[in-house]
Amino acid sequence: MSLFAAVDLGASSGRVLAAHVGPGRLEASEVRRFPNTPLRLPDGLHWDVGHLYLEILAGLRALGEAHGQPRSIGVDSWAVDYGLLDGAGRLLGLPHHYRDARTGEAVLDAVHAATSPSALYPANGLQFLPFTTLYQLAAESAAGRGALGAAATLLLIPDLLAYWLTGQRAAEVTNASTTGLLGAHDRTWSASLARLAGIRPEILPPLVTPGTVVGGLRPEAAEETGLAAGTPVTAVGSHDTASAVVGVPAEGENWAYISCGTWSLVGVELDAPVLTEDSRAAQFTNEAGVDGRTRYLHNVMGLWILQECLRTWRRAGHRWALADLLGQAAALPPSGPVVDPDAPEFLPPGDMPARVVAAARASGQREPRTPAEIVRCVLDSLAAAYARAVRAAEHLSGRRVDVVHLVGGGSRNELLCQLTADALGLPVLAGPAEATALGNVLVQARAHGAFGAPGGRRAGGGDVSLEALRALVRATAPPTRYEPTRTRTVLMPSPPWRGGAGGS
Prior knowledge:
Layout: E1 2-9, E2 13-22, E3 25-35, E4 39-41, E5 44-46, H1 49-67, E6 72-76, E7 82-85, H2 105-114, H3 117-124, H4 133-142, H5 146-150, E8 153-156, H6 157-166, E9 171-172, H7 173-176, H8 191-197, E10 207-208, E11 213-216, H9 219-225, E12 232-234, H10 240-246, E13 255-260, E14 264-270, H11 277-281, E15 285-288, E16 294-300, H12 304-315, H13 322-330, H14 352-362, H15 371-397, E17 403-407, H16 414-424, E18 428-430, H17 435-447, E19 452-453, E20 457-458, H18 466-476, E21 480-482
Parallel strand pairs: 1-6, 9-10, 13-17, 17-18
Antiparallel strand pairs: 1-2, 2-3, 4-5, 7-8, 11-12, 13-14, 14-16, 15-16, 18-21, 19-20
Helix pairs in contact: 4-8, 10-17, 13-15, 15-16
């Protein structure tokens, strides 16, 4: 058995996990968890990346003390956000948070006035979302902020943390593919897209693929962690969804996934991008996956809405337990209101219960009044959105879907899993909740020969494929199956491939 360290950063918390991996064996345990709390400063909403780095160092020290020296360390996080370094490697200000108000429809309109959506979509293959890196950079460039002019390197969050650990600057391709600056077909940086974003192409670092050793642990980082200097830091699917898809315990190819956390990413895995006009109109995105696969997916707002409801109630002095609210919500009849969780009013922080009530009212439905009714409305709405996205992915890609895998923290929400099965009329296989961390570890383990020879070869020949990695997840973390119990008619917009929200 070989020991690997996984650093897994989410939008609300981060953790460091220890994993023991070998042929037929996969055991992971959390050694440190810490909050990821944004900072609201006079110039906007930021990530406290210095705090995250200190917590990672502390987590790696705890891992070494409890389990010993790992063979490798891998880092994954959310997408799109970035830090800027000057020529000496100094960070030029705290990275902005993707929920910061500096981006919005006006930024999309300005970019799309320079390059039409119908031309931009085939170039980068991405859903038009105002927080995509391209639009963030365009907003920063238009504001004339000096950091862009002084920047020598742009690093996405996991790449920035890997740089601090190793001193090496690189961009892992699965996360780079979320920026809007990567070509949809060749998966290389596009000079024309960089210029559209208002940046110099030369600040974009060299690209690496999952399984590449980025560098060894710097002596200073080794001293802080108690680990050996030179411990490999290995690129994984550093976009957390890319790692989560590796950790889906799927079999065959007729499946869809829902990576369900603060965001929900709903889609299918393909061999090539889908860049049709119907795909653009449906707001589907083509992101790079591990082993050259394409993650063809739609972003759904996710459990953020429920999380913000709970925060709002806590701030008002209420201490309702989520388990109690879910139990009350499950007892409600299936005829409650359904809202669009992707509506822009649900993106920023704030009084989310009031926004849910207002959305139901504006659509002419009965308003949810109690906390349990609001929770049920949120979950029914997410289930309806998941069903809509899965059916659209099936239609647009030509890939039949017979079963849906729901992984991530949302897989622990039994009511959401059942409502999703009901909305789809398909079985939902829930779990593992730790799919992202498992995918992170498995890519490291394959690269370092935990299943045979280094580089993903079995002893005696043959590749260790993604399918083989998923079979290991299936054997060691079998999912829970939810069968549809009824057919429910939900209020949904027209299918997006028939003229739904598209480019501006």
